Amino acid sequence: MPDVLSAPLVVEFPFTRSLGPVQSAFLTGLRERTVLGVRTGDGKVLVPPVEYDPVTAEELRELTEVATTGTVTAWAWNPAPRRDQPLATPFGWVLVKLDGADTALLHVLDAPGPEAVNTGMRVRIRWAPQRTGAITDIACFEPYDGEATAESTPHSGEFADPITGIVTPARLDYTYTPGRAQSAYLNALAEQRIVGERCLSCRKVYVPPRGACPTCGVATAEQVEVGPRGTVTTYCIVNIKAKNAMNDAIEVPYVYAHIALDGAGLALHGRIGGIPYDQVRMGLRVEPVWTEGGRHPDHYRPTGEPDAAYDAYKELL
Amino acid sequence: MRDVAIVAFAQTDHRRRTDELSEVEMVMPVLHQVLDATGLRARDIGFTCSGSSDYLAGRAFSFTMALDGVGAHPPISESHVEMDGAWALYEAWVKIQTGEADTALVYSYGKSSPGEVRDVLTRQLDPYYVGPLWPDSVALAALQAQALIDAGDTDEAALAAIATRSRAAAADNPHAQIAGPVPAGEYVVQPLRTGDCPPIGDGAAAVILAAGDTARALCPRPAWIRGIDHRIEPHSLGVRRLTESPSTRLAAEHAGVFERPVDTAELHAPFTSQEVVLRKALGLDGSVTVNPSGGALAANPVMAAGLIRLGEAAARIHRGESDRALAHATSGPCLQQNLVAVLEGESAHA
């Protein structure tokens, strides 16, 4: 369907997360090339350590240091690394039981190929040159030719300048497609026409249309051109500039309004210009102002018509 | 306990892309199908519950817009889970058990085509120790598959046979995304090949639940939910035994699976290796028809594929092709959380 629009969409967020005492000690320890586990009530050492026992829910605080060498307990070979994964060349995913630990840590293994990996193989940590207190302070594991040492030694978990929070960036890339109804709306806007859709059941005209009548639960199949003129049904005065590049050129105070376009069954919103902010009123008749190449009205301005009577728009508030 | 049954089920054709459809445009037809099948209107429904995840299509609050397809005015009694629709069905079942509703509309949908679902699913993992490594969904399933191979539970040929059987069965499923002979293909993450992995695509499903005589009035042969339960395992993969699924086993015990044999099982096993784990946990032998729909290997609309297992099992009972069926849904990496239900036709036992 050539009329269906699509556009790249990047959703990116630096999640800031605070750490509990056990997580803080573990991640600070990684920064100091020290791997800490936590001892459960029945004497097991969990690595990576958690704050509560996964079986009993008991609070866990008894930290213990384990080795930086261990044994692979499960593996898989990734021939095609993905963007944010730790290694850029083909690598193994591994669960590693570090010497002195009773549970396994998920990480990656730098090895020449899948034939070099097996369950039971010995590995050791390769530390990242720059460490910040994150799971990625372990750059990866690498093959290691040495016997297991089963000892773990008690550790206070105290370090100078402990990490108390982490920032984990997350980026997901999409190709956004708005679907049939919204594509039709956006395509019409590009021609400076505003096209809504009518519900064939209740006859209401939705602008912008989303494809379904939320009252009747049926498709809004009939396209209806509305406006271009409309009536301000209600408004507010914006006194503080929003932190958004699109608004930088707009001086405050300005008016943001609900506008019922002629023929529409509900109001959409837009900025009102071409009139002092303190003269905007309910019932004011307005029309869209388009800018060169803009895909939607830049703002709405008074038409000079007499104000609409309240009864004419009271159902659209 | 009230007797509650699945009385209607509908699903979309599942496709690799649905660019011409927004979520609500994709969901609305299946809502209409289940309402039409029962003769109910939206205002007759006592409770509505949906399952979906905004992360899939990167569309914030898509579930509120999908609700437009229900016709939620005057305001309805409604809820949503950021999970597979199987868990929305569970919530609806509980709601009916409380006596606050006699009927429920349950739907779910997933549009994986706009994003990279392998990466999207990493965002459900532990954000401190695991998420920063971006282990994708195939990678984690491959760890489990290799653990099964190492344990002698399966091998690559046996996994390929599961893929072949599933896609052969899907030839009779008009909604399937892939069916018939599919090559084993190259490794995606060894030991899993393209053939061991589910297709990526978009789709939606809906069911209607009803209690007691209402169910009998709406459906000639309701699929009675004799038991339903869900259980979860620790989030840390390193503390789990990946070759087993104690949560599935426990949910099955609580759902009453082992009281009498089932004739059919619809298992939500997106990866071939996961069927091996589930068969073991559920004690399924050759007498049970497993995934006659083709299962998630034939169509895997994320967030709907579990609800579809319940719907497919129910539809077989509706059609008289099954008397007692098991339906299973999973969530999280390596079968972390599992829901099991037992469905029966009226004459299955006295």
For the structure shown, list the relevant keywords.
heterodimer; A: 317 residues; mainly beta; 2 domains; 5-stranded antiparallel sheet; elongated; B: 350 residues; alpha/beta; Peroxisomal Thiolase, Chain A, domain 1; 10-stranded mixed sheet; two-stranded antiparallel ribbon; 21% strand
- Any idea what the radius of gyration of chain B is? 19 Å
Q: Largest beta sheet of chain B, briefly?
A: 10 strands, mixed
User: How many distinct domains of chain A?
Assistant: 2
Order of helices and strands of chain A: EHEEEEEEEEEEHEEEEEEEEH
Could you say which overall geometry of chain B the principal axes of the C-alpha atoms support? globular
Flag low-confidence runs of chain B: none
CATH superfamily of the largest domain in chain B: Thiolase/Chalcone synthase
Lay out the secondary structure:
The complex is a heterodimer of chains A (about 325) and B (about 350).
Chain A: E1 7-18, H1 21-31, E2 35-39, E3 45-46, E4 62-66, E5 69-78, E6 91-98, E7 105-109, E8 122-127, E9 138-143, E10 153-154, E11 165-176, H2 179-190, E12 194-198, E13 205-206, E14 222-226, E15 230-238, E16 254-261, E17 268-272, E18 285-289, E19 299-302, H3 310-313
Antiparallel strand pairs in A: 1-11, 2-3, 2-4, 4-10, 5-6, 5-8, 6-7, 8-9, 12-13, 12-14, 15-16, 15-18, 16-17, 18-19
Chain B: E1 4-11, H1 23-38, E2 47-51, H2 54-57, H3 62-66, E3 78-81, H4 85-97, E4 103-111, H5 117-120, H6 137-150, H7 156-169, E5 187-189, E6 192-193, E7 202-211, H8 212-218, E8 223-232, H9 246-255, E9 264-266, H10 272-282, E10 289-290, H11 305-318, E11 324-331, E12 337-344
Parallel strand pairs in B: 2-3, 2-4, 9-10, 9-11
Antiparallel strand pairs in B: 1-7, 1-8, 4-7, 5-6, 8-12, 11-12
Helix pairs in contact in B: 4-11, 6-10, 7-10
